Amino acid sequence: MDIQSASSVVLQALTQATSQDSAVLKPAEEQLRQWETQPGFYSVLLSIFNNHLLDVNVRWLAVLYFKNGIDRYWRKVAPHALSEEEKSSLRAGLITNFNEPVNQIATQIAVLIAKVARLDCPRQWPELIPILLESVKVQDSLQQHRALLTFYHVTKTLASKRLATDRRLFQDLASSIYSFACSLWNHHTDTFLQQIYTGDQQTSLSSLERTLLSLKVLRKLTVHGFIEPHNNMEVMVKTKAFFFQPFHLLFAGRQFGPGSLCREKLEKTIILFTKVLLDFLEYHPWPFIPLIQCSLEFAVSYVFTEAGEGVVFERFIVQCMNLIKMIVKNDAYKPAKNIEDSKPESLEAHKIKTAFFTHQTLTEIGRRLVSKYFLLTEEELTMWEEDPESFAVEETGGDSWKYSLRPCTEVLFLDIFHNYSQTLTPVLLEMVQNLQGPSNVEDPVQMLMKDAVYNAVGLAAYELFDNVDFDQWFKNQLLGELQVSHNRYKLIRRRVIWLIGQWISVKFKPELRPLLYEVILSLMQDPDLVERMRTLISRIVSR
């Protein structure tokens, strides 16, 4: 297919393929499908989507056809594979300039360059990385951003390859460019922090986008670029620096109102810092040991002390809780049952954790988890009021602990309680003791606190087996609370039913069941409690 003569024909077909009229659309799609295997077709597509004067929809479609062609025809063994000559020409054309003005098209071009890089870099495309490294240094704002966007997608794609030879190639790449990637990130972060105080949100947003992209590159290099990252001083120093940048960015966020583009992008950047730490911990638990202390200090200070008041946001709290949870329950950080069989690294990690989780620290964490993070929000109360059945299902949602505050809080509570039950059991029992007797229906704070404490006792049922006489508590306290008929007390009635459901498979005397059945029958008429009653009945039957 001759590029000069074919360009107008392919352009016309692409234009028709963007039509809403199926009579025009279908023949055009069929024609394009036939051209997919024609030599020169992808060179024509490249010339079309690189022509910024053409219609955006046409250029977008040209990019998509090119991207699909990489999947189907780029490999040497593929039927109708592209010739080496054409592939060489296409590779050169893809990185001639980085000046795409349309964001969506720029992203697609970056993705298709990464697809080619996955197959050809570095052996058939050794010039790609050097050109990208030079292009991210240019002064032109648009070109710098597009080159950085491409650099990220290429790095991400190369990091995802799993064959041993490919991983070694990526590790070689990481070693050679890590210092540059660090300096790039430092530069864009410092530029952003300087610009936010000028009041120019557009300029600040542009710098923040570069900060985010350079951090994404650094994340892939840090996590996947080194077999033994603890032996690389620069990697460890930079990873430790990730604990301090969120502090600056959190306070910088005060400059922007809620819902603003800058605030949204800033929060994404802060979350990305925590993702680097979580990924590093997941993939390199032993190299992470020197970072355990500062990780715990970082997460606990923001989530369980006054330091985070007024600056943290929900997703950040979730990430900090996930960081604590992963350290607490990580098997690599636990000594073997026979201490002599333990690895030195495990003993070192266990020592650090033991020194950090003092009685005072654990007590504060336990109290705040229950008294602050277990409290139902206005939104949750409204949801329960409007749709009790959906709310009950929502509370038990699968993998949501990784992303949503309530389930994440409950999972962290369970993990910490399981590992430090000796310290936390008296703390929780004291909270229960302080709430004995019926709550004042005119005091919503007290009602929410009792709901939170009962929730904690239900979650920790197995851990509390030897410390709570649940039969006695049922007769002396819980039974009476189920009989309080005031409309505002339905919050506690609902929680008590759930609590009994948690304990019935742990500790509940058979002779108390008739009494429980009477209560169940009397409450079956309450629509607010139907879903909880179903769960309780199913647990009774299963026993």
TrEMBL record:
Highest rank taxon of the organism: Eukaryota
A single MF term (Gene Ontology): small GTPase binding
Any one GO biological process: protein import into nucleus
Subcellular localization(s) per the UniProt record: Nucleus
Name of the protein in its database record: Importin N-terminal domain-containing protein
Domain Importin N-terminal, first and last residues per copy: 28-100
Classification via PANTHER family: IMPORTIN-11, IMPORTIN-7, 8, 11
Transmembrane annotation, as ranges: none
GO cellular component: cytosol; nuclear envelope
One Pfam entry name: IBN_N
PROSITE patterns per record: IMPORTIN_B_NT
